[in-house]
Amino acid sequence: MQNMIRGDQYQGLIRQGQKIHSILYGGRDGYIAKIHGDQNPGTIQHLGGGCVSFGGTAHFDIAFTDGHVSKMLPESILRGVQWYISTNPEDTASQEDIIELIGYAERKRKAADDQKSAKDEELRKIRQALPSKYPYLIPYSKDNKVSSHALGSKNIKKELARAFPGVKFSVRSDCYTGGDSIDINWTDGPLTEQVKEITDKYQEGNFDGMNDIYEYNHDNVFPDVFGGAKYVFENRRESRELMLRAAVDLGYQITLDDIATSKEIAKLDYEDQQRIYRRAREIDCFDYTKQSKNQTVTKSTQGTSKVDEVLNKILNCQG
Q1: For the Large polyvalent protein associated domain, which residue ranges apply (predicted)?
Q2: In a domain, 122, yes or no
Q3: Residues 91 and 162 reside in one and the same domain
């Protein structure tokens, strides 16, 4: 940085209006808006390569050009390794410039506060309307003494039973150090994507693997009202019968006896087994069963060219 020197190497007193640069928050420029107390740079010490700084007696208010204001920054911090101080006398802000920077920061803060208030009001209305929108669910109450993840588990069961009558879902919640979760398991029936359309709103946020942190979705107020958990897992299991259906769809000549488990098929190599497994995950057993109850399943209605009447009788997808 031209005409700037690192804070721990700067000699002399710092002036009001003097330009500074902080490498924090991606780097930003600012100006000394006010100095509190007398400076005493000779007493400042740095340990651990500048990780720890102490000493000094003055404090500084700094107005940044991006609309932020830092107040009462200790002298030992400003004269540290994360700050740079201008040595160019021309890099000096006038009193009018400083007043304008502080005014800009205040306007920006007020705009952010107004935006937050509007957002809070919007979420409040959504939260207030949810019980009437989902009258069949159990709203959270401090009196019922049920944890959020346990309540979310109960309400997920109710929603899935309404959406997919006849399908047997196992919904369990768990609490552990660092969070909680809800696990949903079922065999055949609806696709995972169809179930997630219902259950996703019970998840409170997502894990950010890049930064190794969990980020809550504060725009999703559904868990506040009907319970939820940090993690919601949907696990669909494909039965042997469904795997046979998928295999026949793809033209494989096998029988139910060739399928030891949903992921282990005799006579076929790994790649063929995975191909069948991927096909099985695409078959909507819930819709298939609903149709088969009311009409004869044909090739045209199911979109398959290999399924015959005998195979349809073997299949027993719950739905």
Answers
A1: 15-107, 154-235
A2: no
A3: no
Q: Of 227, 211, 222, 237, whose CA–CA distance to 175 is shortest?
A: 227
75 exposure class (CB count in 10 Å sphere: 0-12, 13-18, 19+): buried
- Looking at the DSSP assignment, which residues form a beta bridge with residue 172? 183
Boundaries of domain holding 23: 4-103
Alpha-carbon gap, residue 118 to 292, rounded angstroms: 51
CB-CB contact of 25 with 108 (8 Å):
no
* Confidence band of 262 (pLDDT split at 50, 70, 90): low
Say if residue 159 is in the same domain as residue 224. yes
**73: Cβ contacts below 8 Å, ≥ 6 apart:** 59, 60, 61, 62
141 in any annotated domain: no
Strand partners for 234: 184
In this structure, what token pair is assigned to residue 288? 């298939």
Confidence of residue 142 (pLDDT cuts 50, 70, 90): confident
Residue 113 is assigned to a structural domain of this protein: no
Q: How many domains would you assign to the chain? A: 3
How confident is the model at residue 227, as a pLDDT?
A: 96
Distance CA 169, CA 186 (A): 5
